[in-house]
Write a structure and sequence with these properties.
The protein is mainly alpha-helical. The protein has helices at residues 2-15, 50-62, 69-82, 94-100, 109-131, 142-167, 185-192, 199-213, 229-242, 246-257, 298-301, 314-322, 326-332, 372-385, 389-402, 413-428, 434-440, 444-449, 474-479, and strands at residues 87-90, 281-285, 309-312, 333-336, 352-355, 367-371. The longest helix has 26 residues, at 142-167.
Amino acid sequence: MKRYYFRALAYVLAAGMLTACDKQLDLKPVSNTVVGNDGQGTAGSFIKDAASAEGAIGACYGIFRNGSSEYYVMDYFLAGDAQSDNAYAGADNPSIFEMDEFRMQSTNALAARDWSYLFNHIASANSIIVNVPKVTDAALTTTRKSQIVAEAKFIRARAYFDLVRLYGEVPLIVDELPTITSENVAEIYPKLYPARNKTDEIYAQILKDLTEAAPAVPASGPDKMTITPGAVYTLLAKVYATQKNWAEVIANCDKVMGLGYTLLPDYEQLWDGNHENSSEAIFELNFDGWATGGNWGTSMFYGNDWKKFNTPSNDLIKAFDDEKDAVRKASSIAFIDATGRWSDKYFPLTKYPLAYKMRKTDASQNIIVYRLADVLLLKAEALNETGSLEDARKLVNQVRTRVKLGATPATDQASMRLAIEKERRLELAFEGIRWYDLVRTGRAMTVMQAVKDGSGNSLGYGISADKLIWPVPQTEIDKNANLTQNNGY
């Protein structure tokens, strides 16, 4: 740290040319990418009136589809499904093979880019949270000002939730640094290169952001790509589930369920492209086509022009078949004849599986981030863990009835626990959720060590406790002497 600090001071002194009119230093933060900084003031200093405040929150939403879209339309699903027993990596990317097979190194490109994407989104949210309250333009009402800040707090909380689950301890950055000058460099420079915070500190900030956001976000919007109380309560339920705070999981699921969401009558309607922003969707990324930040992620998972990512696993296909779950299998997996197009060690090319929930390759398919079925099953899990077996059963059966399955045969807490795990797997396959479910329930190592190929042979995943989180990118450590590496990397 000292060598970086004194080097910066040396540059300042050597330059000796800083005048009253030209005192800014071009020192860029490592972990919190500065979004939209033109060199004059902070990244958010352009937020001065109602129009620029609305533009800032619009741009922050836009990062889901533009600035960090590689994470939100692709990598999120790779981490949640290819890293689990739901899918093989597929395609031909070595960094994704390493993730899939628990062979990641600190130089892994996937780990490096997702760290950057998520901190980029946090920096954008921070600019709004810090600067919008300063706006005095009467056109920005007190209510709307509070809404914008609350929306940004949700976005920051969601990004940190993904970061802490992927990397464990990460730097917790909730402020926007002022412009760095020769006068404040001693104070500001150390903040540019922050150390990692403990996971409990990160979770505390996530919960603080969400608790403050819940009463202030808009009650509704023009579509489901609006952060509303339902989205906030859903994320709160997910965060509390990682902490096994079952009472809060139940409380927040109840709040979601009280907002009028309903399951679509036909499971396939969720994915057919004709029922977007439905009664079941709680938060949804809307895409219209290439001109407005199209969903190119669909082409990463579906099509016959090249070998796709997230190849459904033999284990998942067997799970659908064992449950006789024809409805969800048909919506989740498509089989094609890929003869002569590529090679594969897991499947015959005459009947090759593809992830099918994102299937419209014209860039117009929406991505459902949160939906009611997920919430119902989370509440069922919490009820079961608190001894309310029959209430849990009702919710599980509600989800099963829609897909024409009979009542769950689970008869006690232990069997219901596994039944809910299986139900979440089949209901939410290829929605980026399975891996995180396995980790938070302590089942990841047991499940992954037991995974077999289509012939019953163990896949021999070299998973250990250290591999439940990713490495801190070596590029970040090289830039920041205060960052340390996770065990095992």
